[in-house]
Amino acid sequence: MNQTKKIIKCKAFLKTKNLTLYSNTSTYARITMTNFIKKSEINSKWVLIDAKNAVVGRLAAYISKVLRGKNKTQYTPNMDNGDFVIVTNIEKIKFTGKKFANKKYYRHTNWPGGIKSSTPAFLMSKSKPEQILKLAVKRMLPSGPLAKKQLSKLKIYKGKVHPHESQNPTIVNFEKLNPKNKISLN
């Protein structure tokens, strides 16, 4: 009863000022709208990650979150709000369990009977360790043109040297985020 009197008084006040009333019908939780980011407000930063002794799946999950912009407060699913990610020491990346030898990557040549498979051990022997991480990150992003644009923000390099020093990347110590992120086996 008391709440209805307050609403009536509020309506009377707003009518005198020619304003409208937005009444929130929920008494438990306030309903608020998320502020979506506009194209002019997008500000991409650069992040540097050292992949030495990092677990592939955990690293790919973190990278895909940063590429999409989910680590920011103004995440918008239909905008490219993510940051650029530089990954160094990719040749020292690790797998847990027996995945290094047993995991298979499949692709098709679009010809009949043209299915091809490869393993992480085969890609490492062909000196393509960046392909392993790129495939893992690509499969964690949604399919479509926006994901291709976001995947182009991923820069992977062997060794510690990279050509993006002028962007002043912020260094993320991936091993210290969680003790499970690094592995000393393999």
Q: What is the name of the CATH architecture?
A: Alpha-Beta Complex
CATH superfamily assignment?
Ribosomal protein L13
- Mean pLDDT rating: 87
Helix and strand element order: HEHEHEEHHHEEH
What amount of the residues lies in strands? 5-15%
Spatial ordering of strands, largest sheet: 5-2-1-6
| C-alpha Rg (nearest Å) | 24 Å
Task: Report the helical percentage.
Answer: 25-40%
- CATH fold type: Ribosomal Protein L13p, Chain: A
The profile of the biggest β sheet is:
4 strands, parallel
* N-to-C span: 70 Å
Number of helices: 7
Domain module count: 1
Structural class: alpha/beta
Q: What is the CATH first-level class name?
A: Alpha Beta
Task: List low-confidence stretches.
Answer: none
Shape designation: elongated
Secondary structure: number of strands:
6
Q: Keyphrases for this structure?
A:
alpha/beta; 7 helices; elongated; 4-stranded parallel beta sheet; 186 residues; two-stranded antiparallel ribbon; Ribosomal Protein L13p, Chain: A
What does this 3D model show about the protein?
- The protein is α/β, with parallel strands linked by helices and 186 residues long.
- It has a single domain (44-181), classed as Ribosomal protein L13 (Ribosomal Protein L13p, Chain: A), CATH 3.90.1180.
- It is built from 7 helices and 6 strands, in the order H-E-H-E-H-E-E-H-H-H-E-E-H.
- Strand 1 (46-50), helix 2 and strand 2 form a beta-alpha-beta unit.
- Helix 2 (56-68) crosses helix 5 (129-140).
- The termini are far apart.
- The model has no long low-confidence stretch (mean pLDDT 87).
Question: How would you summarize this macromolecular structure in one to three sentences?
Answer:
33% of the residues lie in helices and 13% in strands. With 186 residues, it is of the alpha/beta class.
